[in-house]
Amino acid sequence: MRRRLADLREDVLVIRRTLAPTRDAVRRLVDGRVELAGDDPFDRHLQLYFGDAHEKLLRATESLDVARDLISSARDYHQSKIAQEQNDVVKKLAVTASLLLVPTFIVGNYGQNFEHMPELGWKLGYVFSWALIALTTVLQLAFFRWRRWI
């Protein structure tokens, strides 16, 4: 999509570089700044045709400006969609990191080899630490789903 939009934009610029000088040259003929061969009625008829051509070139220039604006809008929309997708990915990575934060804290706390932690003397102390990790993870998941972050 990005390549196609860039190609379209380049095409519009090439057309504009050709159209603008042509329009200006025809305008000089229509305004009488450039003299035709003489007072021949054919020359006057030719000036009318150049006037029509000038009008068509003006309309083409206006259409080209509209096309350029549309291409710019499409490019901006495409870039905003990419930014939105990146934001969604970053949000999911942040949620994943926060889900791992609490269990990492709990494991780090029990891994410090304290002697006076009551849970260490319990028969189910190991199961308690795993239950605490599971409970906090499930609570975080429920909170994130409630907030529609995941």
Quick recap of the structure?
The protein is an all-alpha fold. It is built from 4 helices and no strands.
Low-pLDDT segments, ≥5 res: none
- By DSSP (H or I, 4+ residues per run), the number of helices equals 4
CATH class: Mainly Alpha
Mean pLDDT: 85
The helix/strand order is HHHH
Please identify the structural class as seen in this structure.
Answer: mainly alpha
Query: What percentage of amino acids are in beta strands?
Result: under 5%
Question: Which features characterize this protein?
Answer:
150 residues, mainly alpha, Methane Monooxygenase Hydroxylase, Chain G, domain 1, 4 helices
Description:
- The chain has 150 residues and is an all-alpha fold.
- The protein has a single domain (2-146), classed as Up-down Bundle (Methane Monooxygenase Hydroxylase, Chain G, domain 1), CATH 1.20.58.340.
- It is built from 4 helices and no strands.
- It has helices at residues 2-31, 41-110, 118-121, 125-146.
- It is rod-shaped and about 115 Å long.
- The protein starts with a helix and ends with a helix.
- The mean pLDDT is 85.
